[in-house]
Amino acid sequence: MKGTVEEIFTTSEGSKDMESVEEIRTIRDRGIEGDRYCEGTGFWTQYGDVCQITLISGEDLDHIETELGLNIKKGEHRRNIITRGIDLGNLRRKRFRVGEALLEYDRPRPPCKHVQDITEAGMTRALRNRGGICARVVEAGKIKPGDAIEAE
To answer: Residues 6 or more apart from 65 whose CB is under 8 A from it?
Structure first.
């Protein structure tokens, strides 16, 4: 099972716009250096619902954009890593390497009303069954667009 990292997004605070970045550094058992959930400033931190890293399928984003007409490619999905060529559901119960980092599947990441509140109407419904996954950082390392994603 192999795919690639297409694009990476982070933001330092909950509800702020996601920004496309050229590289991230992960921190074991914490997430992405400087990202809202690693820093404890994410919207869901107050509810104890923290994902260290989120991944979402580029193919799902293509569908949402072309079939549903929603703007989703500039980080409106609120996920960190856009993948290409890998079925994220098949990573369940697995560890997988992304660039230099070793991640472990944590759980699916369903959409929430908050993502729609800060983007546009229909976003929560569009992301249903396409919301991506949460992963934990097992071994820290750098990740950048073009890096391979491989299940161990």
So the answer is: 71, 72, 73
